[in-house]
From TrEMBL:
Annotated coiled-coil segments of the chain: none
Taxonomic superkingdom: Bacteria
Domain spans labelled Carboxymuconolactone decarboxylase-like: 15-99
GO MF annotation: an example: peroxiredoxin activity
Organism whose genome encodes this protein: Silvania confinis
Protein's name in the database: Carboxymuconolactone decarboxylase family protein
């Protein structure tokens, strides 16, 4: 599996993408009032799982926990996703959770 970039490595590799990620995604989209950060994390984990974006999952699992999701809730979300995103996607996501 390819290594996930953190903000420092992303800044070195693609400074503009890092800037846009911070300014548009985290300082705007994640701050909007219509969904709380906890709900945004659930949506994000679901999308990353369904799309097979495993490199992004470990960071977003940690972020989801910072946003109030418990490990049990994340496990339940991945279990639920098995029926909508596919069994292999859910099991792969659970493997990322187990790395925590």
């Amino acid at each position: 599996m390819a290594k996930s970039l953190n903000i420092e490595s992303l800044t070195r590799l693609a400074p503009k993408l890092a800037e846009l990620s911070q300014e548009v995604l985290f300082n705007d989209i994640w701050q909007r009032d219509a969904l709380c950060p906890r709900d945004r994390s659930l949506v994000t984990l679901g999308a990353l799982t369904a799309l097979g974006r495993l490199q992004q999952l470990p960071w977003h699992i940690g972020f989801a926990q910072q946003n109030g999701l418990t490990k049990a809730e994340i496990t339940e979300a991945f279990t639920h996703l098995a029926f909508y995103a596919g069994w292999p996607a859910a099991v792969s996501a659970l493997a990322c959770l187990d790395e925590e």
